[in-house]
Amino acid sequence: MAEDGTYPPLDVPKPLAEGAWVVDGGPQRVLGLALPTRMTVLRLADGGLWLHSPTRHTPALEAALAPLGPVRHLVAPNTAHWVHVSPWQKAFPEAKLWAAPGVADRAHGQGVHLRAAGVLGDPAPPPDWDGQIEQAAFSGPGFIEVVFHHRASRTLVLTDIVQAMRSGDLPLATRLFSNVVGSAAPEGATPAHVRLVLNRRRAANRAAAERLLTLAPERVVFAHGAFYAADGAARLRRALEWLLRD
């Protein structure tokens, strides 16, 4: 981990499992905070690439992805993780964008037009990856996050509902914020502000969490912090214990 909280090398695909890679980017500035970001890349059965929560597009990253397969799907999993989608759509105009509810409207309100092929639902996935990637949604007032499980690699892909940023390596403002909300928990935790909204629909969100755990993911990737490269199901259960208990 670098002194700015990121996970070098940046903007390159790093192997995670067969048919799965992560791309670390950032730091991304959000409300004055500098946050590490991460994209997950999955290869589908047809050889096409599925890009979750795209990080910044660069010609070098585009070139590095080319040998892995053609980019066919872009995924904006919640209303916070869409800001880099537009350059990817320009680079790959034939790629389909799948967006969580509210993403297109949120982008439009900020002067960005996103061409979405469809809105992500729960639990039915688009036919393009049905049988390969399961999905579920966590939601609360003003918040929704669609999460995914890649069967072939046993990789669960989250975005914000679990975070594990090492506070000692973060810029001061981000360090203070992450310590207050709990996103600097060494073993990963749900930040306090996300817990607050998820608790408003606790029963449905607990059912979603239990469903994910039955899939027994080997690894759990999320956008901010040190993800679970092994022992994913057990570590996720500990991180979501607050939600799973009655």
From TrEMBL:
Coiled-coil intervals: none
Q: Which InterPro entries match?
A: DUF4336, RibonucZ/Hydroxyglut_hydro
**What's the domain of life for this entry?**
Bacteria
According to its UniProt record, what is one Pfam family this protein matches? DUF4336
Protein name in the entry: Methanol oxidation genes, glmU-like
